Amino acid sequence: MDNQTEAPLSSNEKTVAGILLILFILLSILTIIAHWPSEAPPTANAVYKYSLFDVTLLKATTVVKQVDGKPVSIVTEPTGGIHWSTLALILVAAAGFLGNMVHISLSLTAYIGSGSFKRSWILWYFIKPFSAVGLALFLYFGLNSGTSAAPLNLMSIMAAGTLAGLFTDIATQKLKEIFEAIFKPTNNLPDKLGTAGPKAMKIDLEHMQPPKINPGGANKITIPGTDLDGTKLVIKINDVEVPKPTVTPTLISFDYLVTVDPKPVKYQLVVSDKAGVELGHKDL
Q: What residues does 217 pair with on adjacent strands?
């Protein structure tokens, strides 16, 4: 399968990728440091004097004046500056970005190190951190709805934002649970999807039998999985589609006959759905 999308990254591309990862991680860390408040907010209406790397809590001032010969205390609330709610949004967004950059760094280095990185995923690596920022903010809104009159725990919301970026799939599931708990949606559509289908479909290539192709003749190949009959599956070996595989809810089986025998031989198995979405691949 020699094509441009499968070509490995060059040394220069790996260097650029590493530099970009470091820069974006440092940028998100510096953003958090630059907006970190000097004190935790005593109330949700707290106001801070704002400048980069110097965010100081503004406190009410009390002045005692003589009114008709009697001392009267006049409390002046702080004005100007940046409101805590705005500051919290900046910090949560930066935390979500930082968490996802850590996730991307681990993922990218693992795939490049193992030699299995695919260029078709480059766009995913660019978009993922920004979608994680949105998820962190959504989670912040969901977890703190109804608490506008109470002070917020700065460390808790930062931990939630960072973890939302680090584990975006889990954060998405949490938001789904919050939405369902609030709105209790029901699906009364006449053609609604059942629980089985492409989203529930999984294949287990680690337990595929046989684990390697025998170039000496016929191979009876079986691939276990779950919910495999939810849609049509397309199985290809070295870009050639396997005709009429047998598919049950828990097993894919087909015969593969090697018609040529170059040495050495590399076989790549790719399983995808009818829409062309890859479910898994393995070198045999």
A: none
Strands 233-237 and 70-76 turn out to be unpaired
The neighbour count for residue 205, using CB atoms within 10 Å, is 16
Which residue, 154, 183, 212, sits at the end of a domain?
183
Structure tokens at 77: 């609330």
Residue 142's alpha-carbon distances to 10, 87, 179, 234, in angstroms, are 43, 17, 9, 40
> Of 130, 156, 183, which residue sits at a domain end?
183
Per the structure, the complete domain to which residue 172 belongs is given by 4-36+83-183
| Max intra-chain CA distance, the chain | 109
Which 3 state secondary structure label does DSSP give 269?
Answer: strand
Query: Residue 257's domain is classified under what CATH number?
Result: 2.60.40
Question: 116 is written with which tokens?
Answer: 């299995």
Burial of 208 (0-12, 13-18, 19+ CB in 10 A): buried
Q: List, for residues 92-130, the tens digit of each pLDDT value.
A: 999 999 999 999 999 888 888 888 888 888 898 999 999
Asked whether the whole model's pTM tops 0.85, one would answer no
